[in-house]
Amino acid sequence: MAESPLVSVVLPFYNAKSFIAEAVDSVLAQEFESWELLLVDDGATDGSTDIAKRYAEGLPTKVRYLEHDGHVNRGVSASRNLGIRNGSGAYVAFLDADDVWMPRKLRRQISLMASHPEVGFVYGLSEWWYSWSGEASDRGRDFVHRLGVPVTTPIDPPELLWRWVVTQDAAIPNPSNILVRRQVAESVGAFEESFVGNAYEDQAFLAKIAFAVPGLAADECWDRYRQHPGSSVATAERCGQAAAQRLFFLTWLAQYLEHHGWRQTPLWRRLAGQAWVYRHNRLGPLLAMSRSLPRLLLDHARAAGRKLTPAPILHAIRARRLGPGYSPPPGSVRFGHFRRQAPVSRQFGYDRGQPIDRYYIERFLGAHRADVKGRVLEVADDTYTRRFGGDRVTQGDVLDVDAGNASATIIASLERRQHGLEGAFDCVILTQTLQFIYDVPTALSTVHALLKPGGILLATVPGVSQISRYDMDRWGEYWRFTTRSSQRLCEEAFPGARISVAACGNVFSAAAFLYGLSSDELGQTELDYVDPDYEVVITIRVQKRGR
């Protein structure tokens, strides 16, 4: 089993006695356990230092306490940079002392980063958290912004920078939400320490990484962004510094782009134009205020709307807006036609259209149709050999243990060595078969022997599926698989081979498949969305090592 990568969690704090314990506890509650927590003291004077030290003393292998020389206050950027320098993880995550993480945050982010090695950072949605106060006036004010960008698709530079800063039509994450590769954070110079007391210090860092590397956005809520009058944003607005801080940020960003050779580009011109407005126009302060005023008005409108809108409609609206990241409260879920003990169909959906598992199987084979060539072996019949191989197939064989199968050219079991057929096949198609074979390692070793050097195995196995009663009663159904078990089985049976294992499905397609619905009853986006925690079908491509 591969060792999980280490995440360095950097938590800076200054006079956060009221919140820091809750923030630290949300790290301790993470479902992903390979992390180190660096508590960076920015010169606190309110007792939060003692709280941080107690955590470090109680968990010395997981938590470390850091401070600046002389216990001075240097600002949040310098504090985050101190944490980055002292961390040793391949990834860096940040958590402000007044925010909290959802338990799944690191697990989901690491999974997405592992699936997309080309991206430098990943982020999702934050819940704007008002109700923490317990005040009646704050109830119902919590909300989650619309993400505004494609999900789980790498976004190349500088698209995110344009959407976050120029058009401002996409939610910009707060630092408690992102996960970034350490080498990316270090390569861009980490946080700008010149932004002392400036609420845009996090946006400066985000701008640098979005300009440098592709990012990935997920439509999932991973943290609670606490709203309170002591926050840097609230303080800037209350003190009338919002416009000046925005101007400082825009000027800095335009100069940053110019330094990197982007002067006179559309992005640079738009940023320089915005900076000019703030610098020379009396409307600058109003423009800065306009960034918060619509949000305040919308907050009040949302609160009023929640009180007047019937609960089922309200939850439907939230589900549509937030997508997979929305979790309705207990008692509000409507089960509809799924509220039944018997499935809609016991025929895997065949009697209603194309089965959902077959949608995934045929999409996989279609993507690898070029591998179906030469002499091809398939189990039970040659439907997929003919459909996806066509004229590239010189000979098609069918293997079955049932001598009554008129289509079979080879009557045999994969659990026994097939002498005389070693190295005979260019391709073996093995879809939804291994679950009916008790000795799976031997079956895969037999396939290895049947393939020529460089030959291809195209296989699929079930993850989430009902039992095939016909096959169970006839010869047995023994297994369900995961991507991890499939990978390990293939590695042991095909030493030195090129192996690619992937999962298809999500919670909705899994539930629909279990109830016997067909793929024709689901939309393509509902079928194609992949949630790694709901593996309906696992696809496997193995290329045997050549001579």
How are the SSEs ordered, and which strands pair?
Elements: E1 7-13, H1 20-28, E2 35-41, H2 48-58, E3 63-67, H3 76-86, E4 91-94, E5 100-101, H4 105-115, E6 121-129, E7 143-144, H5 159-166, E8 179-181, H6 182-187, H7 201-212, E9 215-226, H8 232-238, H9 242-259, H10 266-280, H11 284-308, H12 311-322, H13 356-367, E10 374-379, H14 383-389, E11 393-400, E12 410-411, E13 425-431, H15 440-450, E14 451-462, H16 469-474, H17 483-493, E15 498-504, H18 507-514, H19 524-528, E16 537-543
Parallel strand pairs: 1-2, 1-4, 2-3, 6-9, 10-11, 10-13, 11-12, 13-14
Antiparallel strand pairs: 4-8, 5-9, 6-7, 6-8, 14-16, 15-16
Short synopsis of the structure:
With 547 residues, the chain is α/β, with parallel strands linked by helices.
- Number of strand elements: 16
The CATH class label of the largest domain is Alpha Beta
What is the CATH topology of the largest domain?
Spore Coat Polysaccharide Biosynthesis Protein SpsA, Chain A
Shape: elongated
Instruction: Give the helix tally.
Output: 19
The poorly predicted ranges are 288-296
Characterize the largest beta sheet: strand count, sense, and whether it forms a barrel.
Answer: 9 strands, mixed
Average pLDDT works out at: 88
Give the end-to-end Cα distance, rounded to a whole number of Å: 28 Å
| Structural Rg | 28 Å
Superfamily at the CATH H level of the largest domain?
A: Spore Coat Polysaccharide Biosynthesis Protein SpsA, Chain A
Class by alpha and beta content: alpha/beta
Quickly give the CATH architecture of the largest domain: Alpha-Beta Complex
Question: What percent of the residues sit in helical stretches (DSSP H or I)?
Answer: 25-40%
Report strand %: 15-25%
Q: Count up the domains.
A: 2
